[in-house]
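Input record, target 12 of the design panel.
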């Protein structure tokens, strides 16, 4: 066999790997080198739903972040044996269909824990200290016109002694609790974990009491039928008027219309979110035009460090699958 023929045979034997929405992870600054070394890699920066089957023909493995892999798509890809979700949540894959077809599905757990917890406090500190407000005013020369050495037109609040209510104590919720405790905050949580399994500084409570007592309420639970619209008009009515809601979990945990009405009617003092029910949001989303609303465009997970960890874990997951020792499998959860 000639050298060219050998190279062609080796290429034919390589597993075919397709990444469907690579840009969301790399942002043009990171590479897929670790995954490229595992097989014959094709990367699409973005893929429209109608193009998924065409892009994945003959693929042994698909990696996806937000592109949906449905039962219909799997039925048209008989070669497919692996789906790697480039995120912790895996609701973009029809798991039941994957089980029926013996397709292994994996996810990337805990890669962005510290990044998301940091974003929670970036929002909290922005509200408590009004950093955005004062920086904007000073760019317009407001401080230079002050007759006093300092200038204030809003309250600036300490976190020490305030109560943070955390819905869900997984990796991120637990990290948020630790940071809150370091700030001197009282930490309450709604969690399935028993009180005996929690640190002494976390007080387990009911969901209703959590809404009642929280100065800052932050959401870190899974999205399912029980938690959809967890934050709604009835629960907001339990809250302090000076309370702040922070959502870095999933957009549909919040009834956005109810929150919008609460903000306009001063039922709560602020709403901070990194996620919305539809992304990107429609221009008529009621939250976008509300007073005291602080929205970041789903970037809490996306620190440079977290994305490097994501790519490394995705490569490790795929290599383990090719070695018949799969890691982080969610197919049978």
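The sequence produced for target 12 reads:
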């Amino acid at each position: 066999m000639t050298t060219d023929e050998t190279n062609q045979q080796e290429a034919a034997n390589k597993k075919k790997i397709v990444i469907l929405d690579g840009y969301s992870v790399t942002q043009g600054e990171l590479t897929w080198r670790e995954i490229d070394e595992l097989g014959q890699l094709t990367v699409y920066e973005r893929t429209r739903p109608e193009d998924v089957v065409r892009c994945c023909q003959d693929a042994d493995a698909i990696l996806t972040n937000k592109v949906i892999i449905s039962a219909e798509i799997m039925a048209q890809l008989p070669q497919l044996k692996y789906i790697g979700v480039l995120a912790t949540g895996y609701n973009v894959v029809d798991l039941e269909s994957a089980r029926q077809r013996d397709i292994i599905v994996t996810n990337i757990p805990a890669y962005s824990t510290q990044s998301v917890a940091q974003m929670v406090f970036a929002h909290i500190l922005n509200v408590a200290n009004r950093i955005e407000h004062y920086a904007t005013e000073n760019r317009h020369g407001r401080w230079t016109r002050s007759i006093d050495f300092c200038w204030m037109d809003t309250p600036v609040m300490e976190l020490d002694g305030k109560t943070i209510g955390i819905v869900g104590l997984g990796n991120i919720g637990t990290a948020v609790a630790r940071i809150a405790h370091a700030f001197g905050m009282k930490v309450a949580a709604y969690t399935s974990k028993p009180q005996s399994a929690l640190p002494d500084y976390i007080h387990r409570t009911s969901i209703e009491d959590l809404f009642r007592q929280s100065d800052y309420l932050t959401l870190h639970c899974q999205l399912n039928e029980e938690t959809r619209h967890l934050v709604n008009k009835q629960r907001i009515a339990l809250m302090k008027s000076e309370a702040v809601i922070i959502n870095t979990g999933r957009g549909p945990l919040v009834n956005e219309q109810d929150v919008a009405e609460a903000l306009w009617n001063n039922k709560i003092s602020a709403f901070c979110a990194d996620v919305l029910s539809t992304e990107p949001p429609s221009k008529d989303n009621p939250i976008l035009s509300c007073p005291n609303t602080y929205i970041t465009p789903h970037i809490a997970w996306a620190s440079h460090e977290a994305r490097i960890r994501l790519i490394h874990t995705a490569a490790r997951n795929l290599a383990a699958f090719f070695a018949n020792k799969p890691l982080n499998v969610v197919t049978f959860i």
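The radius of gyration is 23 Å.
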